[in-house]
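[09:14] KT: can someone run the structure on this one? pasting the chain below
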Amino acid sequence: MEAIQDFLSSHVIKQTQEGISNIKLYVDLHIVLEIFLAMTVVHLLTRKRVKPGSDKLSKKEIDELCEEWEPEPLVPTVEPVEENVIVEKLGDGIIQADGNSLVDAATLNFLGLASNPNVLKAAESCLRKYGCGSCGPRGFYGTVDVHLELEQKFANFYGTAAGIIYSFDIATVSSIIPAFCKRGDVLLYDQGCNSSIVQGARLCRSAVQNFRHNDMKHLASLMETVQSQELKRNEKDRHRKFVAVEGLYVNSGDVSPLPNIIALARKYKFRIIMDDSSSLGTLGKTGKGACEHWNVDPKDVDIIVGSMSNTLATVGGFCVGSHAAIDHQRLASTGYCFSASLPPFNAVAAIEGLKYIEQNQHRVASLQAASKALYKNLVSAAQKANGSLARSGVKLQLTGEDFSCVQHVFVSGLADQDQQNILSAACSLCLSKGIAVTTAAHSALEPKCQPSIRLVAKAAMSIDQAATVAQTVIASLESVLSE
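[09:31] RB: done, structure tokens below
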């Protein structure tokens, strides 16, 4: 019993001693913390205070800093561009510039509608009736009866269910693509597409990829990859798929292989958006564009868009397709909803232009004949020139189809800036010989394009004129390169 009492008393004494040592440690830490807080308070109370405004620079210091400062330029430095030719008057295959009459191989006035008397008379009459502008978007008192007439005219012209018009051609396809291509959707577009399609691809929130120009194997590979990725998802997570092309590529003169694209779109369940700006009035037996040229049903192309400022020689853009595709744009396309509508006289000019194409199919045939003559003579002249330029390592190259109204001439074997200088000099030399040609202009939004001279055939251009234009351009390039 005594042993147990001794054990308990010794245990109690040990626990008491440990408690006392813990209390001392706690007290020591508390004292250290209080001392630190006290020193902090003393520091804050005794530090030197800075009065507001005491750190101002002297006038001398300000002047020295201003002298050292070099502002950044508002815009990046760009290379000087060639002096523009001021056109005084547009004719049918002829332009007036600097008091001289020139053969027009530069503008996109394919059928000469810019100076057509019936078009001008109708536009003037409409201007006197309605005034200059509509002063409002289509959804807010900006719709005039001629707008609805033009939309129906485009639908009838292409053989589709419905049509819609826009007040600015550049904003047409760049508004339509984001209206349909949403987050999670897929958009594939040709690398040779114009800046409006590229801008639309950038504005939409879809997964965007481009395929090599007119390379159907590459397009099929991308479509197959998209399909294989889609099959791994649940049916609810699958999205829409689109492919964007041009009927006739204005940047190269190449024509899109539309039947192959339609076949791939059906196989992999893609919808097609086609820009027919340069095809309208130039391709097909009656000038109804790429679909007629390839003898395919326009309904196989989900959305057909185009510019009215090329063949129709007016302002604005258009789109044709199914009722669902057109009605969707009236509420979802920013270029339609938030822009003042197309001036009525421009709409009437387009109506008259479409009537002209329908009633004068021989003009389309004349344009296509001039296109073939231009291409044939370009190929022949370029082959001869390349023979004499072989030793210099420089070569003239052509793009475009033999039936394309737009042809491009390139100079390979030189730096881009040297190419641009040579092409500009050749254009000036052509101008002095009575032929108006121009270097191709590209938007900064487009992928970098090789400099070129763009040649445009006209319905009013005779076979002999087409040959003269081709031979003069190649001869001018050869002359500049030999200097």
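[09:33] KT: thanks! The chain is about 50% helix and 15% strand.
[09:34] RB: yep, looked fine to me
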